[in-house]
Amino acid sequence: MTKRKGPFCGAKLHQRQGTCTQPAGWGTDHVGAGACKLHGGCMPNHQAGALRVLAEGQARAELARLGVEATPVLNPLEQLARLAGEAEQWKDILRAQVAALESLTTGDGRMHGEALALERALAQCGAFCIAMARLNIDDRIVKVNQRISEAQGVMMYNVMVAVFGELGIDVTDERLRASCARQLQAVAERD
After folding, report:
1. Is residue 4 domain-shared with residue 65, that is, in the same domain?
2. 125 and 87 in contact (C-beta within 8 Å)?
3. Between 41 and which of 26, 35, 56, 190 could a Cys-Cys bridge form, CB atoms 3.0 to 4.6 Å apart?
4. Burial grade of 46 (CB within 10 A; 0-12, 13-18, 19 or more)
């Protein structure tokens, strides 16, 4: 007897010890994810969960194929604003695809994937808008950027003072300090 390869159904067996070793989604329309038909895989909530797992797996595989890697979020406020913009673009793409459909349902009465995706995209856009409004995100982004600029200015000033000190230039001369501050301010205003 050959040993089956995963993923498995994994449901707890009631007649004996262990878990179900049928392939995930065996006997259902979501083969490869979720419970098998013997352990509730055909129930609507199991189907929805398994289809979500399959879609997430496909999305991860596509991102890997495209060479997209996760990067750390350094500024969550800017990232939220960027995500809201991307969600808006995605919603517009899906809206055009749904408009091109002859019917919102497939031949077997289920909604087209594009229509379901548009529904989710609309909900996500709404959630992003609510989050941004609650966070007063535009003002926060400006404030964060100002703090970053101020911190960079202080750092640059300290570097210049240290360099002048190493070169033997009198850093206690107030004219030097005032000139450095003016030049840094001029650069900050140009950006």
Report:
1. yes
2. yes
3. 35
4. buried
